[in-house]
Amino acid sequence: MKTLQPAAGAAQGQAVREGRVPMPVPTTGPLFIVFNLGAGSGDEARVRAAIQQACGAAGRAFELMDVDDPSKLPALAREAVQRAQQAQGVVVAAGGDGTLNAVAQAVLGSGCAYGVLPQGTFNYFSRTHGIPSDTAEAMQVLLHARAQPAQVGLVNGRVFLVNASLGLYPKLLEDREGWKQQFGRSRLVAFGAGLATLLRGYRSLRLRIEVQGKTRNVRTPTLFVGNNALQMEQLGFSLAKDIDGGALAAIMLRPVSRLSMLALLLRGAFGKLGDTDQVISIPCVRLNVHSARAFGARRVKVATDGEIVWLPMPLEFAVAREPLWLIRPDTPAPERAAP
């Protein structure tokens, strides 16, 4: 694996970790919970009951703001922020990665504290910050822990908590959703969907990237920009330390045969993707991406935390200037703790 080192210093990331920015409103106010679980499902009833029981025992006011229509999620998240600002409350996202992302987009820069009740498959964001997947346990964190700064990535101003990507990776995500609807949510289903996508073939991107004051043309099946140290660790990259230091992790695959791509998929599944020269990784706090073609596309499909959107070119990836004030335990999760 070829790694390009970042420019000296990560003062913004250090400031985020040390909390040298204005503190948000207190975290003891009412909870405004953007609730995005399928109505009538067993999980939905169980999560509702856990929230009600925990808040009742703690004497904490709360409101469940149900997402009846996914297209209205961003507007509902903004409403939750407005109400939390008025009541000095906390904005909470209850749902999968897409819900956490949409609510974080509304909360960032609002002065409100942000809480999560993770209900996704991988839950990288919550796990890297020590927030349990079990709702009852997560509620205890939400009710009793303090708000601490968490780094946020941006692509053209759009938030990503875990990763953002273009090229092959968004296609893998789209196909995976189809498999989930047929076979349910599991790591095995995700791997099978990825395998099927690769077998059907893919095209490479021709990009011009600007990073650390240098410009280079690249040809790659996918550009993946990570903002989650735990995910980097599990894929086998040493870039986790760069993310912890306030950077993003840009990863590109060299053009390879279909068989070699399948081998890379297996390496990723076993946490060995970083041990190959077929991968280029670049720690950076800012990355500009243009089409290298004379008449390149004006818009490109981008995945942000698993949600697919069309964004105008060029793309600018960057670490947000201010953190997300996340309610989380003081100590890191066991799988992220230092050895």
How many structurally independent domains? 2
Determine the number of helices (DSSP H or I, runs of at least 4 residues): 11
Classify the secondary structure makeup into a structural class.
alpha+beta
Strand runs, count = 19
Distance between the termini: 24 Å
H/E series? EHEHEHEHEHHEEEEHHEEEHHEHEEEEEE
- CATH top-level class of the largest domain: Mainly Beta
The value of Rg in angstroms is 20 Å
Give the strand order, joined by hyphens, for the main sheet. 1-14-13-12-9-16-17
The gross shape turns out to be globular
**What is the CATH topology of the largest domain?**
Tumour Suppressor Smad4
Average pLDDT: 82
Name the beta content range.
25-35%
- Could you say what the CATH architecture of the largest domain is? Sandwich
Contiguous runs where pLDDT drops below 50 for at least 5 residues: 1-20
Largest sheet: 7 strands, mixed
